[in-house]
Amino acid sequence: MNLHYVIGSDVSKSLSPLIHNYLFKKLNIDAIYKTFSITDSNSISKFLLQIKNQDIRGVNVTNPYKEKIIPLLDHIDNKAKKISSVNCIALNEKKQLSGWNTDWYGFVQLIISHKINLIGKKVKIIGYGGAGRSIEYALYSLGILDINIYTRKKIDHPNSFVYHKPSDFFSDHLDADIIINATPFHFINDDSTVFDEFISRDLVWIDLLYTKLSTEKYKKITEKKYFNGLEMLIHQALESINIWYGKNITKSVDLYDLKERINAK
């Protein structure tokens, strides 16, 4: 049986095992997927050695190691190199540890699945870690160039702005059609000021978080105005399986039942 993991500082509540183990069963792949929390960066090298020893078939990576893990790998896929973020690791044909980014692909599939119109739209991305850079890359691949980045600290980016409080997303002169939250903070659900501003404006909000909104807030949101990151999570998982097993084996998967199971959880 092949062994897979998702690693990060705290992955105990990750939905990735539910998704991957469902997919492995549907695709008749003899594999199991587990979580492994790593609090010490020095322990990552030992963990990666298990892939080289072929004790582990493949790994997904989440915060805060998507960037930190890059120097430890032998080969980086060109897209992951441009994004400077790796969330999928496999052993390539040369027996080297190879790093990939499937987040950008998952985001593109989210856009396609929900038929979100990006043409001619102004976009704001909140956060510029591995996830934020993946989204920026995905948007560029879709031909969207009018993008501004909002971060807590100043970064070396020509279209970046520092925000001091969440309401800053709405208070400057750069009107947006779409806001994408690439941080771990659930602004729409947890900040009443942000929520009130959001529902009063004609814009779309996309959370990479897959946590559900409260029922009270969800009832107030106009249809096609708010999207969470569940679709992205599923499709980046599908692409990871394609990388680990070397062929496009996920095209035949019916995702309706999987989504129902996740929503129930």
What report would you give on this structure?
With 265 residues, the chain is α/β, with parallel strands linked by helices. The chain contains 11 helices and 12 strands. The protein has a 6-stranded mixed β-sheet with strand order 2-1-3-5-6-4. A 6-stranded parallel β-sheet has the order 9-8-7-10-11-12, covered by helices on one side. β11, α9 and β12 (226-227) form a beta-alpha-beta unit. α1 crosses α10, α4 packs across α5 and α4 crosses α10 (230-245). 34% of the residues are buried.
Give the SSE map.
Blueprint: E1 2-8, H1 16-26, E2 31-37, H2 44-52, E3 58-61, E4 75-76, H3 78-83, E5 88-91, E6 97-100, H4 103-113, E7 123-126, H5 130-141, E8 147-151, E9 160-162, H6 168-171, E10 178-181, H7 187-190, H8 192-200, E11 204-207, H9 215-220, E12 226-227, H10 230-245, H11 256-264
Parallel strand pairs: 1-2, 1-3, 4-6, 7-8, 7-10, 8-9, 10-11, 11-12
Antiparallel strand pairs: 3-5, 5-6
Helix pairs in contact: 1-10, 4-5, 4-10
